[in-house]
User: Fold this.
Amino acid sequence: MDFYMLMYLLRVDHSEATQELLEDLQRSSRSAHVKETQRWARSVQQEVFGASAAELGSGFGRSVRAVEEVMDRYGPWQDYECQAIKADLVAIEWNGTGRV
Assistant:
């Protein structure tokens, strides 16, 4: 799930993704957004299967089901992030002008 979300967030073409590339991106990704989104996706995956990630196995059908559920819930999750960023920007707005 972590690699899927990494590819999705960083717009990595799946046909060009290698294990080595994904591991390098995972190590170099310092974005709190990426890490928090990966944590969220893992929590959805655990909720779907009611088990820890280690117990989920790696069957293709299970992976597809988890990814489908994550994508179904991603819109509201992303909106939550957008609202948090908006609140931060409004807090530093200059004299009610809408400029930061």
Notes: Residues 53 and 80 are 24 Å apart (CA to CA). DSSP finds four helices and no strands in the chain. Helices lie at 2-10, 19-28, 32-49, 60-91. The mean pLDDT is 81.
